[in-house]
Amino acid sequence: MIETRLATVSLENPDVQIIAEAAEVLKKGGVVAFPTETVYGLGADALNSEAVQKVFAAKGRPSDNPLIVHIAVRHQLMELAEEVSEKGERLAKEFWPGPLTLVVRKTYLVPEIVTSGLDTVAIRMPDHPVALALIEEFDGGIVGPSANLTGRPSPTSANHVMEDLKGRIDMVLNGGPTDIGIESTVVDVTLDPPLILRPGGLHKESLEDIVGPVRLASEEEFLRRSPGTRHRHYAPNAKIVLVDREDVEGLKRALKEFRQDGKSVGCIVHSPEMASVESGVFFKVLPAPIDFFARYLFRTFRELDHEGADIILVEQVDEGGLGTAVMDRLRKASKA
Ligand code: AMP
Ligand code: MG
Fold this sequence. Notes:
Number of strands: 16
Shape: globular
Bound molecules: adenosine monophosphate, magnesium ion
CATH class of the largest domain: Alpha Beta
Order of helices and strands: EHEEHEHEHEHEHEHEEEHEHEHEHEHEH
Mean pLDDT: 95
């Protein structure tokens, strides 16, 4: 066990002293959790294998799941990327800082442990004042997988990070709840057309506005090209069961059956039809728009765990836009 320092940072004007302290921890090979606009990340010096190893150890992350390197300014890209395709450049110019991760060919400087031995590296510039201040002060790329124990819902507050990682990391920067609530969109721009390896905070439609057709990887391609996607993910302790959209009878039936088995059942719904089925602390309504559902999904998983749910019934959302990323997370969480 190590002592984990929790420091609150103002978003308007990230406290210089705290940022300097956190950057110092990174320079010494330590591990610092930090807020981004998607979820909290677990930071370490991307060019220091020993520091990166600590991130894998703290999360209990399998070594075949490569990490995303976070940068704050464009010139940091040149140190990490051997080559960025023309479409990759256009996407970076349009969407950085933002919830877009680009997979590019790596330079020899990026250690194998970061990329799990792949010859590509995933890079993103987060759109968050605290993340950017930390990376700029550190003056180099930092790895930043979600700051949770592997398999658990991603952390959308500093409290969630402490819940999972207190005693396992050096420091947590508390910048309040995150905005988007689910992870970045990962796009392989070594291929043409570019290939989405993980749907996320930036929609396919927005990518296509800039570079024309983009493909969403098939299940088989996910497994081959984005090794991380094969592992258990995003799941609370309770078992997640998906229910069809607006299927009031299906929801009532499932509630009845699980309760007959003596289970404590939580629900997460969004449509007005489903919202009127029950009420109470076990019955969570996350109404439209979908941004709201995404922002609160992982937090609500953790809340229902705390309230002692054995099962969580979740109303599915429509695919398209952010809905594609939400359904990706729901499917993975329900497979656990
Ligand atoms: P996380 O750090 O949990 O947000 O997950 C990072 C995601 O990016 C995982 O799905 C990885 O498989 C994917 N990823 C990271 N680096 C690469 C890479 N070089 N090639 C393909 N996918 C990658
Ligand atoms: Mg993760």
